[in-house]
Design brief:
alpha/beta; two-stranded antiparallel sheet; 11 helices; 4-stranded parallel sheet
């Protein structure tokens, strides 16, 4: 969901009835020949199950969703990924699994190393942002939480509400897990590992110079180690959310996805040795 102030500030072309924070606006993209698919992660929104953010199981579920989308009658068989922050970091992990149909990714301000980028900078616990994010954006959207519609935070769970004890049983607490595990080879952190070298899909990694404490390193490292034939690294400045919706940035997003999902390469993204302008 958008906060009212953020929503008021974004580009008018990105303000359809189904717009949401950090993800592409369906109104704009469907008008340009795309189908926009949003899938609630397991344990969130309308998806039941164990809430276990940034886990191997969530990446495997994402893999299944991509392959499902590629097989639908309304699909060309080519799937692209686009989003900010969590919706960018998850792209690196699923792209390394190489799902059938994945044709291009745009991780926009997205960490690529759970331990180094997000949880323990230099091995030191960095939990303040994670606690803020967990309490504000994750727990408030857990599957079965009562009162979402009344708070204007999305629809209530279709199958009904869960009590506090059930909600607690249905989630792994990321802030506590980060604090209780210390080393990168601990089973908890090791379970988040994957190999960036396994990424072969065309990618446009967009890093924000202001994102030094969370995403900047991940965008650079993801670009550096991915083995994609066509890969690009773009740097921006400004706020975390607004540039994603700027007219000129949306045009870059669309030209990149058009090149690899539609075969309409207006800027030379698919031409070896060329730097698109």
């Amino acid at each position: 969901m958008f906060g009212p102030r953020c929503f008021n500030e974004i580009n008018l072309e990105q303000k359809s009835a189904h717009a949401a924070w950090e993800v592409p606006d369906p109104g704009y993209w469907t008008a340009h020949g795309y189908v926009v698919v949003r899938v609630d992660e397991r344990g969130l929104g309308q998806s039941p199950g164990l809430l276990n953010t940034m886990s191997r199981s969530t990446s495997e579920a994402f893999f299944d969703a991509i392959e499902w989308a590629a097989e639908q009658t309304w699909s060309s068989g080519k799937v692209g990924l686009l989003g900010i922050s969590y919706y960018a970091g998850s792209q690196w992990r699923v792209a390394a699994l190489q799902p059938k149909g994945l044709a291009a990714i745009i991780p926009w301000e997205g960490m690529s190393d759970y331990y180094r980028d997000r949880c323990r900078h230099g091995g030191i616990l960095c939990n303040k942002f994670i606690e803020f994010w967990w309490n504000l954006q994750v727990l408030t959207n857990q599957y079965g939480l009562a009162g979402k519609a009344a708070r204007n935070w999305g629809p209530d769970t279709i199958e009904g509400d869960l009590d506090a004890e059930q909600l607690a049983r249905n989630r792994n607490e990321q802030p506590a897990d980060n604090a209780n595990n210390h080393f990168r080879d601990d089973p908890y952190y090791a379970s988040k590992e994957y190999d960036l070298n396994d990424i072969k899909v065309p990618l446009l990694s967009v890093a924000n110079w202001g994102g030094i404490l969370l995403h900047l390193r991940g965008n650079v490292e993801g670009f550096t180690h991915a083995r994609s034939k066509f890969k690009y690294l773009r740097f921006i400045t400004g706020r975390h959310d607004l540039p994603f919706y700027y007219k000129e940035e949306v045009e870059i997003q669309r030209s990149f996805l058009d090149a690899f999902l539609k075969g309409d390469d207006r800027e030379g993204w698919s031409v070896e040795g060329k730097v698109p302008q």
